[in-house]
Amino acid sequence: NAAYQIGDDTKQVLDGLDKEITLYVLANDQSFAGNAYFIQAQRILEQYPKYSPLVDLQYIDYTADPTFAAQYPDLTLKDGDILVKSESGLRQLPLASLFNYTYTEDQTLTIESSRAEEALTSAIVSVTTENPVRVAFLTGNDVFTDTDAFKSILSDNNFEVSSVNMVTDALDDYDILLLLAPAVDLSTDVLDKFDGFLYNNGSYGKTLLYAADVSQPATPNIDAYLREWGVAVGDGAVFETSKDRAYSYQPYYPLAAYTNADYAAKLKDSKNPVLLPLSRPLSVVYTYKDNRTVDTLLNFYETAGVRPSTADDSFTANMATEWGPMPALTLTSWVIQKGDSSVQSNVVVSASSNLFAPSGMANTSLSNAPYMVSLFNTLTNRESTVSIAAKSLAGNTLGITTGAASALGIVLCAVLPLAILGAGIAIWLVRRYR
């Protein structure tokens, strides 16, 4: 997988540079020896100045040079950090951020793959971008908070990420708001604040994303607000009856199909599904009303059902209150025509807040992370983006569905051995009686 070389996306970024970039590595060039992944990261670092005369790579012993650290009083510098600097921006990359990690069987944390190229190229794009897209995770009302992995992915893709209190803080400076499964209903004042955010003094151009969760209590104000935007959040939990469409044989971890081909086409690999664990059922109230158009981006399959929240342990699949296909992710576009052009704001509704959990965002066999990043890029009209796959120095994990795993097991453990045995018997018989 060309682990020691930069890819075409990075070369394209370097070819388009019009500003000088300095890469300060806070270590000496001998300190990367001894670990295969450290060596790989150093080899990747050394590729950047080779492909662009505007990139300068410097190894800095900042402990021996106090004047260097004094230039960055707001940063906490550590050995191995990389500072990516341009005339208009600065990005600090901790050494640990150059790798993906996993736990071994004895619960030892180990490096799983290298993301050095992804981190460095994204940092270069970040410090050369004039107007970054600002994303705010709304806090308060007991919202879903297991979002560190998604925040990291957004930061790596050059979104400026913040946490904002939806009641006390101003929202106007942000481009995208994320409201993830509040366990406490919102007041009408806050909902009116969202309307003002989306209207944006007549300029529009904003996006609000809401995610539901099966653990939420009744939220009548939120539900009424979403119905105004053409989407109804129902009661219960979505389950999948087909093992090919459930993750790791868990029925309440359903996979979703791509309904909108335009958004699916923006993915590098649209064969990887999107996982929406512990989802609530959604329905479309209308498809067009008052300049608002509702589009279903992801669908649960026809084999998916809904278990009501009042069900007990005797519940079986044939007792489902609803069957698919049903929406899993919707987009309501509020489009206003202004002369020969148009402006729009958007409301995105997800059936699951766990769509943004680390279990889905960090899994490269799923499209949770690339799909959401691609969606945000499209809604904010960003074109100069990069998407670089992590590079493993070991064998790759085979990412397949549970149905495919079962089929492979049958083929490898039964069909193939029997075929070999049959072929052997046939050859023996032919030779025996020739």
Strand content: 25-35%
Helix content: 25-40%
Number of helices: 11
The profile of the biggest β sheet is: 11 strands, mixed
Number of strands: 21
Q: What general form does the structure show?
A: globular
Poorly predicted sequence stretches spanning 5 or more consecutive residues: none
Provide an overview of this structure:
The chain is 29% helix and 26% strand. It is an alpha+beta fold and 434 residues long. Strands 7, 8, 9, 10, 13, 14, 15, 17, 18, 20 and 21 form an 11-stranded mixed sheet that branches. Strands 2-1-3-4 form a 4-stranded mixed sheet, covered by helices on one side. Helix 2 (36-51) links the parallel strand 1 (21-25) and strand 2 (55-59). The longest helix has 32 residues, at 402-433. The chain is globular and about 70 Å long.
TL;DR?
The protein is α+β, with helices and mostly antiparallel strands and 434 residues long.
Itemize the secondary structure elements and their pairings.
Elements: H1 8-15, E1 21-25, H2 36-51, E2 55-59, H3 66-70, E3 82-85, E4 90-93, E5 99-103, E6 109-114, H4 116-128, E7 133-139, H5 148-156, E8 159-165, E9 176-180, H6 188-199, E10 207-211, H7 220-228, E11 231-233, E12 237-240, E13 246-247, E14 250-258, H8 261-264, E15 274-275, E16 282-284, E17 288-289, E18 292-300, E19 304-307, E20 326-338, E21 341-350, H9 358-361, H10 368-379, H11 402-433
